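lol forgot to send this yesterday, sorry. struct tokens for the thing we talked abt
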């Protein structure tokens, strides 16, 4: 049966200008996705108005009520009325200003778009005025303009979001989900402006409150106030300048990771963005340190001339496009590696001197924003508690009790600092762990396999970058049989094998002969190593030669390292610890497993109830 095409009248195809109410609702679809979108736009306007305090209150996840109050520069009646007109803004004057945007919420559609799908009441006054102005708009229709008390700054209340767009309201998530999204938006803004105080109220109950930056709080203090005490010990500062750009902020020390990238906050010229390139660079910096599936925390601020980045590629400006993305990746990754190696040397990377824009000074045109510098980080012990040992110790009564496993877990610290410089090897435990007494009063428990794996990984990587890994001819060639597809890959990858220290020759069919192999693999199962290398080549081809080599080196280091259950004599143990001192990143094996745990003499005394 044929289906007749729909009948379209000529009048339905006529081109016409949409009414302002319809145009504003369409614009609202780009700007106002959910309650958190409204909060983002309103808070950004408050900060651009020089606010030192921002108060955000929501009810029912922001669906029924949103209020944003600030103490910034208020508006007169004419400006307040003009703010609800499409394309109205006080922040740009011509097209040239788009190339050096330093404000947050310059889009003119924000207020009219919000007002077109809700009930909005705006109250504001200029400083020193005898009266303020209050404007009421419902569904994009002006209802009332009247005098009001001369409040300091601006207060905007948004009620019944999407009241006239039920289809949009139907697709909002639960109140809990929407509330969490709003809270995240306020946290992002609070991190960007340590100089401003933020209060967040949910359904009449305070969620958090931060004071305006002062007394040296800075970025690190703001992070601690939002994410809890102890963050100072878990973070290390990063700072680097290159390619006409600068990155500064903090990343987590090895051992502190999250199961997703949600704890990675990236800001471009003071504006929060979700940028795949920068997040990739952060994760690459920890590539051989973080266990699979875990991501480091990051609070990073990138500053660059406006001509090097476009922040207008997303309606809500949550994405950015760089002129030279590779330079950005190199800058961020290099800064993280410098910080990690500085920690190994027993020091710190330079404290970020430009972590976030100062709300007190207000926005500045051109690439010269003002900054609040976070305080220098207090030097902490070189060891921090691992992810698995973050559970707080149980409460104790007055009667002394035998310490349980949670006390021991809390006392053991993951190895996240410099390798021991002065030490004595006590012995081997379970033919797997090496006990080392450090001169500073700490007892280290080294995993002999992961420690040796880290040593070999860095040694092989260095040799590979110099041109070729040292190899040794075999008296009797080893045979290796591949699958048909792997045999083809092996035949096509002779150059890679050669740089890795292998000489392969086709022996007939899918069998190859290994004539030479890396020196560190003598006495090992060379056939298994060769099969693993081919697998790494097959998986890593899209990442380029260096990624293939890195995966192959991981396999070689793991196969070549001493094994758990292998007895070592005192000289071998001392040599292993001494070689660990020369590693640039002696924190974990290439797969992210910790190299060592530490416990102090003080903690031992407490555990044995001697103190």
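and heres what i got for the seq, position by position
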């Amino acid at each position: 049966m044929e289906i007749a095409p729909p009948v379209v009248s000529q009048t339905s195809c006529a081109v016409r200008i949409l009414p302002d109410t319809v145009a504003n609702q369409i614009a609202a679809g780009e700007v106002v996705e959910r309650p958190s979108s409204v909060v983002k736009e309103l808070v950004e306007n408050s900060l651009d108005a020089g606010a030192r305090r921002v108060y955000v209150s929501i009810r029912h996840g922001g669906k029924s009520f949103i209020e944003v109050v600030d103490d910034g520069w208020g508006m007169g009646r004419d400006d307040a009325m003009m703010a609800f007109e499409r394309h109205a803004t006080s922040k740009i004057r011509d097209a040239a200003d788009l190339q050096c945007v330093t404000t947050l919420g310059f889009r003119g559609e924000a207020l009219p778009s919000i007002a077109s799908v809700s009930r909005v009441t705006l109250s504001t006054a200029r400083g020193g005025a005898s009266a303020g102005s209050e404007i009421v708009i419902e569904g994009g229709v002006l209802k009332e303009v009247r005098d009001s008390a001369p409040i300091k700054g601006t207060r905007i209340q948004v009620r019944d979001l999407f009241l006239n767009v039920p289809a949009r309201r139907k697709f909002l998530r639960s109140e809990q989900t929407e509330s969490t999204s709003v809270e995240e938006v306020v946290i992002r803004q609070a991190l960007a402006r340590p100089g401003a105080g933020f209060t967040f109220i949910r359904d009449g109950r305070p969620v958090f409150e931060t004071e305006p930056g002062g007394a040296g709080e800075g970025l690190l203090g703001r992070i601690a106030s939002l994410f809890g005490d102890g963050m100072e010990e878990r973070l290390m500062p990063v700072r680097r300048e290159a390619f006409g750009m600068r990155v500064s902020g903090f990343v987590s020390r090895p051992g502190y990771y999250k199961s997703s990238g949600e704890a990675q906050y990236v800001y471009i010229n003071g504006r929060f963005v979700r940028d795949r390139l920068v997040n990739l660079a952060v994760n690459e910096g920890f590539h051989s340190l973080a266990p699979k599936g875990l991501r480091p925390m990051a609070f990073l601020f990138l500053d660059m001339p406006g001509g090097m980045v476009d922040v207008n590629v997303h309606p809500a400006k949550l994405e950015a496009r760089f002129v030279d993305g590779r330079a950005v990746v190199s800058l961020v990754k290099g800064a993280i590696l410098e910080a990690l190696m500085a920690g190994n040397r027993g020091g710190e990377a330079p404290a970020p001197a430009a972590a976030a824009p100062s709300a007190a000074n207000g926005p500045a045109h051109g690439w010269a924003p003002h900054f609040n510098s976070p305080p220098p980080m207090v030097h902490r012990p070189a060891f921090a508690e691992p992810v698995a040992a973050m559970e707080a110790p149980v409460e104790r009564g007055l009667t002394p009790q035998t310490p349980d496993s949670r006390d021991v877990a809390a006392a053991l610290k993951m190895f996240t600092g410099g390798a021991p410089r002065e030490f004595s090897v006590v012995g081997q435990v379970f033919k797997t762990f090496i006990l080392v007494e450090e001169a500073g009063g700490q007892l280290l428990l080294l995993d002999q396999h992961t420690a040796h794996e880290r040593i070999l990984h860095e040694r092989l990587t260095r040799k590979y970058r110099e041109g070729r890994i040292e190899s040794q001819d075999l008296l009797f060639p080893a045979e290796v049989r591949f699958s048909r597809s792997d045999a083809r890959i092996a035949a096509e990858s002779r150059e890679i094998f050669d740089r890795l220290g292998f000489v392969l020759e086709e022996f007939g069919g899918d069998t190859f002969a290994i004539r030479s192999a890396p020196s560190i693999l003598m006495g090992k199962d060379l056939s298994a190593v060769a099969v693993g290398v081919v697998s790494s080549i097959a998986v890593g081809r899209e990442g380029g030669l260096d990624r293939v080599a890195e995966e192959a080196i991981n396999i070689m280091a793991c196969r070549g390292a001493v094994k758990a259950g292998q007895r070592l004599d005192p000289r071998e143990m001392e040599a292993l610890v001494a070689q660990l001192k020369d590693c640039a990143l002696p924190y974990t094996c290439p797969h992210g497993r910790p190299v060592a745990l530490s416990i102090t003499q003080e903690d031992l005394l407490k555990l044995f109830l001697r103190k």
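The first strand starts at residue 53 and ends at 59. anyway ping me if u want another try
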